[in-house]
Amino acid sequence: MRKVVIMVAIALFTLSFTSFGQSGKGKVSGVVIDGNTKTIESATITLLKAKDSSVLKMSVADKSGKFNFDGIGEGKYIVSITAVGHNKGFSEAFEISQSNMNVTLKTIELVPVAKSIGGVTVVAKKPLIEQKIDRTIVNVDASITNVGNSALEVLEKSPGITVDKDGNISLKGKEGVMVLIDGRQTYLSGLDLANMLRSMQASQLDQIEIMTNPPAKYDAAGNAGIINIKTKKNKQFGYNGSTTLGYGQWNYPKFNESLNFNYRKNKANFFANLGQNYGESSGSIVIERNFRDKTSGDLLSTFDQNTRRRNDNNTFNGKIGLDYFAGKNTTFGVVFTGYTSDQNRMNRTNTDISYANGGFDKQLGISSEKQEWKNFSTNLNFRQVIDTLGKELTADLDFIVYDSKNATSLLNFYDAGVSAARPDTLIGALPQNIKIYSGKMDYLHPMKKGARFEAGFKSSIVKTDNDARYDSVLNGGIVHDFNRSNYFIYEENINAAYANLSGPLSKKWNAQLGLRLENTNAKGNQVTTGEKFDRHYTQLFPTAFLQYVANKNNSFVLNYGRRIRRPNYQSLNPFISFLDRYTFQQGNPNLKPQFSHNIELSHTFKNFLTTTLNYSRTTDIIQDVIEQNEAKNETFVKQSNIAKQRQYGISINASTSFTKWWTGNIYVNVYNNKFDGIANNTPISIAATILTFNASQQFKFAKTWNAEISGFFRTAGIEGVIQTKPVGMMSVGLGKQVMKAKGTLRFNIRDVFYLQQFRGIIKYSNIDATITQRNESRVANISFSYRFSKGKMNGAQPKRRASSASEEQNRVGAGN
User: Fold this and answer.
1) Where do the domains of the chain lie, and which CATH numbers do they carry?
2) Which residue has the higher pLDDT, 780 or 143?
């Protein structure tokens, strides 16, 4: 089978080289000068829709004032020009059509301002949602209700994205999403990824790119696709930046601050992005469980557990970097990234146990956890433009360290009503150390008439060291718990290479073909028990995009991709994490990777309505499974390769301007998930049809005021083996520009009606449980942002590329 795939891929690439080369989309070009007929260097050029002036593309004029835009679909447009020391200018309206695909605009003159200006702030009107051929883009600042929110909460209301009760992220109903920040992987997963995203504020973010079928250039990890969170940057000589202060309150206070700064002088460009977040919160978990005999099904006991949770979290995150322009075509860069988190959790659990024989127990469990998490990473990068045709070579080296200290304790009183009751005490120390070394190189080769060839390779080494030690307190003395303690060492090496070819096939057809090869070598050593594993496998991951532009109103895109989801590093570690004496989570060293095939067909109508049909099939799916020990009344969760999953669905995204003061975006996704597999040695087959709905409506009034209503709703469905109940929420926001548009004051209330709670039912084999979980989701936020700048726009700012460390960082986790 592998030989067949290779032969087909080679044939496709060969045919593509003979077909690529004919232009299939429009082009517009022009020149900008000032009032004295002198050219203006580094003017900012913006392509706008003529209908509503929404931004489609932005560019920078060259030294002679020339500019152009390629790949423009049919429609009516205008171009706006801005430059330091000049008034804003506009082109005449023009149209791209089948009979006029290349437009040359009349020379545009900008009028110099009467006085010199120390700083100019240009604020472009961006739509909330933008639809591209291979991704959906969310412009974070376009939504008022994002104020005071964390990055995780911004994701939660983005099209197609859902976040479950534990912070796990799904895309179009599929788990296994790879999260990047500025093209670089977070190297986190599960609870640790959720905590990091909670520490990042919306004020630090620029865009969110959602890719359900990423090109071959990206790592094949993440069977559901890739989410790339882009932080704010600017392109100016001199200095520019923004700062934001925020406060939130409902039950408990929450503070956040952020600073974005960029300074460019001569051959050096310095940039920084810093943020701090402190928050206190509360929540509750109610679990009702029926323990039944495996053979007869008779009821043995009933557990009614009520847990009250209290958390406080103080996090800092920062990114500092420097780009050095050694020559016109050569750039060297270094980026330092850090993240620290001090988190304290306290759970108080009351448990009522009723036995079938008439017995009754009442117990109180108190668990606490103090987690200190530190991350530091260094990225060295290089970019060389080889010739004037645009050939480009880039390289990245990364070194990343994660260090975590996790201290936990569990006290369990057998009879909460008796003051003299002696508690069971369990103490745990769970340190984690993860080191990642990674390097990659990419080559870009532009070809004739719009075609592009890309190729590259990557290699990474990951080493994790986890020593989980548990002790019990008996009669005032500490006794080591050998059954729960575990020392686990994991090493992994992944080597990858890819090739990608894109461009026009004809006037109406465009295509992109890619092939990625990944070789994985993994070793695990449970030092405590002496168990080891050694795994090696090589896989091919093809991708394909085919676009057909029928006319100016209709275009179609068909894409396919094969992807992999490897187990999180900590999911392989069989250490135990407790909620109370009877409820805990455990890792699984026998986990294997899961593979998926994804197919999508999209239709875009008049650049505002996109309809997508999708189908995917996943094998060896990694999923949380609930197991029980009836003899000890224990319930534990661990991940297993329990099943195969089939999904098909349809999504509709509509974004438009109803009037000059009212714009809106609506996203609807209906899909059917079906799981078939074995859990607890029992065959299971669970299927459900789920509808998710996201909407945002924005209003402008009185020139400097705007408002927004947004929210999401998800019908009943399934999350693995859990049957979930409907969930949703609505947020409202109000904003005002102040200080001559350099400042913005915003206020919002998230989850106004306090509707966001998780409710689930678990019934299979002898498992019978219901879960209700509520967090402090309703919060009132107020923030103030101030933008500052002094200098002129820079057209030579290097692109922030993806680092070499891609798929690995996303898999760092504490096993939830």
Assistant:
1) 2-110 (2.60.40.10), 238-811 (2.40.170.20)
2) 780
